[in-house]
Input
Amino acid sequence: MAEEIRRLPIGVQSFEVMRQEKYLYVDKTRYIYELTHTGRQYFLSRPRRFGKSLFLSTLKAYWQGKKELFEGLEISELEKDNEEAFEAYPVFYFDFNGQNYQAAALEDVLDGMLAEWEAIYGCEKTGLLSDRFKKLLKAAREKTGKKCVVLVDEYDKPLLEVLENNEMEEHNKAVFKGFFGTLKNYDEYLQFVFITGVTKFSKVSIFSDLNQLKDISLHKSYNAICGMTSEEICRHFQPELTKMAAERNLSREECLQEMAKMYDGYHFYPGADGIYNPFSVLNAMDSGDLSAFWFSTGTPTFLVRRLKNMHFDVRQLTNGGLYAESYDITDYRADNPDIVPLLYQTGYLTIVGADSPVGPYILGFPNDEVKLGFLKSLFPEYAPGAVRGSGKDVLTLRRRILDGDTEGMRDILTALFASIPYTTKDAPFEHYFQSVLYIVFTLLGQYVHAEVHSSRGRADCVLETDKFVYIFEFKVDKSAREALEQIEAKGYAAPYGADKRQLFKIGVNFDSESRSLSEWLVG
Output
């Protein structure tokens, strides 16, 4: 018997296409039941490529009354005694994906959407965009006898794409304020409203005017509304997981552990189940590789540039020292110097702990895909000369570490710091060198066991390979001898006393005036 071909929905964002063409579908329809039976107007923030568009498409099919698409899914059982379920309502689906808002005017995009509906409901294409939308809501109610459903997918794309153009960003905010402000006074025409985005921009009419819009982004009950849990992966993708494990010579449990390290770790409520990035999971299942699929689809150039310019202590991203209140990470203002909300909302940080269920939250990288990808993007901002083939890159340093070549390691790090341009706008050197070393040694963790510490009582950095152990202590404007003596005095090497691997104790001193690695001593 021929093996059944299972279709993975990579790039499929239409619920109707997914069901009609028999793609694998992770059933999220119980959330639709809960939303439609407990409220009327919602906002959901999730990172890009996290399943928001598919969920909104599922809502669209539900409100259009396409009952046949939901056969066999949870909601069909939940709604079996509800005679009013799956009735068709007029649906206005605003999809802001697929446009380049640096080239296309937001007004033109809205005009095109309205024109299609005006043809359906017999409305004239005259007047302001907001007035035309009002007429459509009235006409749809009169023509169908039903209230309207408004679904808005990625409302903030026209804002995020122009973040570095203040004039265009303010213009698009004003367009939205006038357009979606319509919903505030037309509640009598609305059955259901659901708006998605990556971030929740303050001073945008959608949020300042619609007080009844319930934000479920940090709601415990909706932690897994998008993305996948470990249980869902095991339940829906057993054949793919088994095949991947066999190809990687791992057990299914070991394979899932590797996937978790790479793609799991998102938490949209403290203590809730970890959520896997669905885009990366599907691509990994399809290819058999654990690559950085999600990260490679968008480089956070704007964010890493801002982090460097604001002298952000990048070590906070992994050492549990980054705190934020819930309102800090659910709101974004362009004039806010704090970049943490945007890092959280765009998926580069997540909740890794909390002092209490209501905060403050502890933020950090969710997984290795994001951590390593983000630091790789950040590294050129600090060390633009450390490109591949330069002799100053991480892969060349890795080779020296694997060979036990401490002189080669010294030469690479010395050349790396010598190549970093300096301007008076840069951060104090101690901050700069700590950031560069943190990024370099964290990236080395892909290839060797690396621990980078910032707390007292522990060595600054420990690297382990099959043959060697390296213990580093770094100083600024002191001496390499003092650094080496600290390794001895503090007993940093004691845990490796019975280890058969060759041990290197390395004291390093940096000179802040010349901004260079001035001394390197191996003990």
User: Anything to note?
Assistant: The mean pLDDT is 90. DSSP finds 22 helices and 13 strands in the chain. The two ends are 66 Å apart (CA to CA). The CA atoms of residues 145 and 507 lie 79 Å apart.
